[in-house]
Amino acid sequence: MRNMMNWCCGPDGRPDFDKMTRYMARHDRASKFDAAGWALFLIWVGIAWLAEVSLAVGLLGVAAITLGMQAIRKISGVRVEGFWVLVGLGFAVAGSWQWFDIGKPFAPIVLIAIGVALFVWRVWPWSRHSDER
Which pLDDT tens digit goes with each residue over 54-64? Predict the structure, then answer.
């Protein structure tokens, strides 16, 4: 609650309507970007399905949409969502994996990488999160 008071109030402690208006405009743009991203995703899946493109091309298309929407958010001054950047990179790697027809399975390698990252991020002694409970 105190945090909210800091962002919506001016130095005198009174509500700052300019700050609130800017926040609402940014939030409205974020919602429009989310809707546009989902619309592009559905359009791409439909086109890829009708055109019977390969799995690699389909995955790379989804990666381009996902990463492109986050780039547009960044350019527009809207907060980039790290989760969707990781998802987009995952689609890009999976699409490339399929494109180059790499013989090793992709899923086990991803699971190992996620496990190592989780261990280092949350468990490793020097991690800033290791002492929080």
Answer: 999 999 999 99
Instruction: Please give the Cα distance from 42 to 35 (Å, whole number).
Output: 11
Quick one: which of 54, 67, 66, 41 has its CA closest to 99? 54
Query: What CA–CA distances, in Å, run from 101 to 11, 26, 49, 51, 55?
Result: 60, 42, 21, 21, 11
Q: How many CA atoms lie within 13 A of 45 on its CB side?
A: 6
Q: How far apart are CA 133 and CA 121, in angstroms?
A: 14
Q: What is the pLDDT of residues 12-44, one digit of tens each?
A: 777 777 877 777 777 788 889 999 999 999 999
Whether the Cβ atoms of residue 92 and residue 60 lie closer than 8 Å to each other? yes
For the chain, domain boundaries: 2-102
Rounded to whole angstroms, the Cα distance separating 108 from 123 reads: 21
Q: CB within 8 A of 91, min separation 6: which ones? A: 59, 60, 62, 63, 66
